[in-house]
Amino acid sequence: MFENTSEELAVNKLLLMYILNRIEINLTNSQITQVVMENDFMNYFSLQQFLAELTQSNFLKVYKEEGKEYYSLTKKGNQALEYFLSRIPLDVKEKIDIYISKNKEKVLKETQIKSNFSKISENEFIVNLKVIENQVPLINIDLNVASNKQAKLICDNWKKNAPTIYGEIIKLLIKK
């Protein structure tokens, strides 16, 4: 995409910060990789190196939640991006903006709607359902169900319908 210079390295790092800034949610490594690879911005190995360097320099921070690592832009990263934003070519910014507008809803579902289950005994499974916004749980439900099949079905339905179900639960709970 660019010549292999220090300018290219800086622009690629800014590009990663721009993606996190524009999508406005924290992303896993695989989600960032998907954005970068689908748009052919850089190769996988450079991407991983840049993420590590941005994290070491405190432009990005990494936190773990439910066994996954999420990247977020730090205040220092936001300031650097603001200052050097003009170094990212306009066509690249437009490409990112278009990609995000088409895919943000899907990514939101992946990162903010969570469901999993674990086996307690032969006929007992605990299902955990969550909706998270800005790293704060809006709802966190644990259900005890009798079968693996029920647990899987509940998890699948939650992933597909969490906003509607959450809304219905709130309506029922505040009903007089």
UniProtKB/TrEMBL annotation:
Pfam families in UniProt: DUF4364
Domain of life: Bacteria
Stretches that traverse the bilayer: none
InterPro entries the record matches: DUF4364 (IPR025374), WH-like_DNA-bd_sf (IPR036388), WH_DNA-bd_sf (IPR036390)
The name this protein goes by in its record: DUF4364 domain-containing protein
Biological source species: Tepidibacter formicigenes DSM 15518
Lineage: Bacteria, Bacillati, Bacillota, Clostridia, Peptostreptococcales
